[in-house]
């Protein structure tokens, strides 16, 4: 008799203390749960073993990446329904240990063990980064982390990002984001240029230049000279070709270089778009001080960065397990207030902060649509595991932005000289 789904649903409800809000479809063809809800498809017993050996987010992520579980139905709805059971509950070992004191929970766990088959822990999917002991955010560890994320094939990113090749939050028109992704990304790049007050003949340093989009836009539309730096060899090669194709080699230089090794200042402006999340809390003041030194007096920094919500006990913050293992190794998010404080401690005058949180939710949903529309090609380029990583990461992130669990902000700061003349307009957001 096919009853694995009912058994799984019953046992999981006993362990979690609440019924599952999604339907379960098991490897034996059985189904159980709300008929109108998306289905969590458990393809094999190995999926159950993954959850037993690593309960919570990482175990579920491993099962997803390996293809041991899937979603039948709307992915966003499914993630929204299960987020409270996984991402918001966390993986607190003490909570799990305390729950095992309940005889009913212990009995349910034994039932899951019996259903899972031979008690051998499955190996993590190959897409999971192998951790290297040592200090975080050294030049070597940062380069390794960046390579893990970005050196997966430029063709894959062409699918996800579209022609703009911009891997950060776009800037959508109001009241609804009814324009194209390419137009919204162009508007974001132009917004950054205007906030930085770029004019012909000035020098711009683009930290974390990606595939060269910001550097090309600034040089082509504003006549500035640009140095773009990245730690990704694949990004640099792609960006250099784009620069050559645009006929901008006399104004744009792309380097494979750590921001800590840039010594050819002063620059009139610095853009750091979606890069500071890689810096790390222990290095952030150093990052801010290094950028300050590279600016001339009166020079501007535009820091575009994802922010998390502050915690009552900041020492309890830990990296998201799935993101750390599969997407952004060693990435750390800081509250907006912490970022502003560090910039001010370094010597910057913070002049404007603009939250564009909802814009990132729209952007991520467009990226998911792009990936789903060319799924087979993406799988051929990057492999099924990597494609599944990005699909889960982007869909879950879209929901996180929509529900205000994380945000994204553009912080405009100035190296204001001793005279106090900032060079900014009296009225905010005219950006001249």
UniProtKB/TrEMBL annotation:
PANTHER family: CYCLOPROPANE-FATTY-ACYL-PHOSPHOLIPID SYNTHASE (PTHR43667). Residues 156-396 form the Polyketide synthase-like methyltransferase domain. Keywords: Lipid metabolism, Methyltransferase, S-adenosyl-L-methionine, Transferase. Gene3D superfamilies: Vaccinia Virus protein VP39. The lineage of its organism: Bacteria, Bacillati, Actinomycetota, Actinomycetes, Kitasatosporales. Belongs to the CFA/CMAS family. One of its GO terms (biological process) is methylation. GO terms for molecular function: methyltransferase activity. This is Class I SAM-dependent methyltransferase. It comes from Streptomyces pseudovenezuelae. The keyword Transferase applies. It comes from the Bacteria.
């Amino acid at each position: 008799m096919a009853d694995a789904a009912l058994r799984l649903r019953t046992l999981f409800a006993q362990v979690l203390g609440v019924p599952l809000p999604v339907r379960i479809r098991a490897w034996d063809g059985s189904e159980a749960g709300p008929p109108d809800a998306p289905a969590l498809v458990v393809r094999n017993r190995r999926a159950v073993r993954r959850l037993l050996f690593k309960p919570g987010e990482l175990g579920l992520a491993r099962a997803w990446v390996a293809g041991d579980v899937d979603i039948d139905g709307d992915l966003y709805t499914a993630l929204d329904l299960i987020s409270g059971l996984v991402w918001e509950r966390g993986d607190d070992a003490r909570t799990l240990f305390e729950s095992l004191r309940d005889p009913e929970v212990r009995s349910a766990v034994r039932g899951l063990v019996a259903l899972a088959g031979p008690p051998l822990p499955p190996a993590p999917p190959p897409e999971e980064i192998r951790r290297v002991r040592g200090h975080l955010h050294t030049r070597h560890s940062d380069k390794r982390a960046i390579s893990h994320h970005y050196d997966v094939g430029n063709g894959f990113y062409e699918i996800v990002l579209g022609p703009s090749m911009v891997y950060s939050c776009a800037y959508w028109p109001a009241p609804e984001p009814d324009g194209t992704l390419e137009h919204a990304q162009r508007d974001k790049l132009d917004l950054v240029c205007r906030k930085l007050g770029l004019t012909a003949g000035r020098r711009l340093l683009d930290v974390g230049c990606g595939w060269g989009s910001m550097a090309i836009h600034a040089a082509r539309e504003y006549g500035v000279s640009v140095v773009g730096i990245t730690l990704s060899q694949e990004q640099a090669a792609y960006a250099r070709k784009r620069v050559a194709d645009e006929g901008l080699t006399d104004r744009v230089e792309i380097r494979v270089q750590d921001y800590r090794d840039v010594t050819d200042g002063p620059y009139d402006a610095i853009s750091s778009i979606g890069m500071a999340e890689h810096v790390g809390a222990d290095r952030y003041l150093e990052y801010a001080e290094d950028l300050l030194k590279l600016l001339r007096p009166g020079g501007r920094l535009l820091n575009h960065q994802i922010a998390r919500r502050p915690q009552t006990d900041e020492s309890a913050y830990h990296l998201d397990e799935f993101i750390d293992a599969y997407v952004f190794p060693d990435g750390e998010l800081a509250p907006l207030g912490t970022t502003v404080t560090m910039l001010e401690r370094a010597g910057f005058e913070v002049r404007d902060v603009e939250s564009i949180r909802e814009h990132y939710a729209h952007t991520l949903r467009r990226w998911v649509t792009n990936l789903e529309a060319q799924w087979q090609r993406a799988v051929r380029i990057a492999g099924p595991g990597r494609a599944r990583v990005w699909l889960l990461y982007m869909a879950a992130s879209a929901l996180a932005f929509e529900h205000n669990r994380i945000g994204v902000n553009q912080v405009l700061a100035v190296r204001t000289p001793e005279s106090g003349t900032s060079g900014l307009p009296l009225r905010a957001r005219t950006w001249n």
